[in-house]
Structures are given as C-alpha cells and as structure tokens.
Amino acid sequence: MAVVPQVSAIPVVGLAEFVAGDDVGSMIVERCESNGTALADGDLIVVAQKIVSKAEGAVAVIADQQPSDEALELAETLGKDARLVQIVLDQSARVVRAVPGVLIVETVHGFICANAGVDQSNIEGDGLVTTLPEDSFKSAAAIRSTIVERTGCDVGVLVSDTFNRPWREGSINVAIGVAGLDPLRDLRGTIDDFDREMTTSTVSLADEVASTAQLVMGESGRVPVAIVRGVEWERGEFPADRLLRPAERDLFR
C-alpha cells in the first residue's frame, strides 16, 4: 500500500495586533521562535489576508467616501451604506449580482466574491474597513523571502481569505496569494486506483491547504497564521492568474 502522508495544522498563537508598516514575515518568525515551534523545510505557512492588509495599509475610512451615482443606486437596492458601497466599487472591475443585502463583484484582482473582500470585522476602530492587498502574490513573496532569509528553511507561503461558493452554504478559506509553490496539482495523465488514466483532474492544492489551516485559525481568537506540515508540493514561482479560471472556460459567468 502507498504511504499516506500525515498532515498537521499548527496555529501560530500570540501574534501582536498588526499595524501599517509591520514586517509580517519577521513577526511570524519571532513568534514561532517564542512559541517553540521551529519552522522546517516543507512547511506551508498560511497568512490571513486581514493582517497583510493591515500591515500594507490597505484600510479605508467610510466617512471619507463620496458616493457616486452608481453607489447611491446600488445602496438603495442593497439596503447598505452608500459610502461602503463606494469602497466596494473602487475595488471592483464589475458588478456580478446585486440583490437586497448581497453584492457580488469581480474584483480588480479577478476574484469573484462578496463585497470585493471589503471587510469590517477584526479591525480596531469604528468606521474602518480593510480591502484586499493590492497584489497578494507579491505580498506572499515578500513574506516568504523574509522567512527563508531568517530561518534558512524552504517554505511556501499562502495569503488566504474566506469566500462563499455558488450553490453551497457557508464560507471556506481559499488562497488569494501564493509564493514558492505551485498552487495547482495537475493529476491528468496519472493512473487511478483501478488503472484508469485520469484526464480532467486538477486539484487546487493551495485552497486545500488554506482550508486545512482555517481549522485552527478560525474566524476570531487572534490566530491569523498557521503552519500546515506534511503536504507534498512542487517548488517554483507561478503567475498570479494561476488560480483564476479563464472567462472562456467559466460556465458560471
């Protein structure tokens, strides 16, 4: 029988509140050292988008917004603050669906999600929201570079966020930025358990890892980072659109 890998998710507890200008990679390394959780070759480090956004200053003040006509019209449909809707529109390439209480958009990054990832949760101060990092792949690469330099360990880094999915209740943690690893595992051409060749199977390894990490990160409790250990992954750098399905193959648009 084939050897089945044993995968574990280790929470990085005790991290301080992140503010603009913080070095996320250094803070992760220092906290791992303090916790006695030494990083190792092959570890995958999952970092919540929220702390990356805070460290990069991706924060907007609701009171500072001047709603456009489009924002005012959408706000009436949605039953939401037009200033908050304007922040979402500023982060969006197009509106996919707008119904009372729900605004689904395609972000400027190419993600299809609610409110363009604009979020009021887990941020200190009233009237503030975080937006997604400008380039989560670049953010992941910077965090990885710091960790590799400080520890000498060959690790991969994923920036994650929680998205809802079509036809499924509940959100799930997915990767919105990846550095050091191939986020996809292409199984086409491999043989299944009954000696048949697989012709269509491509697995989103990055999303699987992000979801595994979320089991210990949670939605609250100040655990924005986790180490996923025991996963086999392919080293390398891959383009930011690696996880995005091309429009011509997207049957749900």
Automatic annotation (TrEMBL):
Looking up NCBIfam families in the UniProt record yields:
F420_cofE (TIGR01916)
InterPro entries for the chain: F420-0_g-glutamyl_ligase, F420-0_gamma-glut_ligase-dom
Molecular function GO terms recorded? coenzyme F420-0:L-glutamate ligase activity; GTP binding; metal ion binding
Record bears the keyword Manganese: yes
Species this protein is from:
Candidatus Lucifugimonas marina
Per UniProt, the enzyme's principal EC class comes to: ligase
Q: Which Pfam family, an example, fits this chain? A: F420_ligase
Q: Which Gene3D superfamilies match?
A: CofE-like, CofE-like domain
Q: Which residues form the Coenzyme F420:L-glutamate ligase-like domain?
A: 17-230
- Specify the protein name: Coenzyme F420-0:L-glutamate ligase
Q: Which PANTHER family match?
A: COENZYME F420:L-GLUTAMATE LIGASE, PTHR47917
Q: Which domain of life is it from?
A: Bacteria
Does the keyword Cell inner membrane feature in the UniProt annotation? no
Its keywords, alphabetically, are:
GTP-binding, Ligase, Magnesium, Manganese, Metal-binding, Nucleotide-binding, Potassium
Record EC number: 6.3.2.31
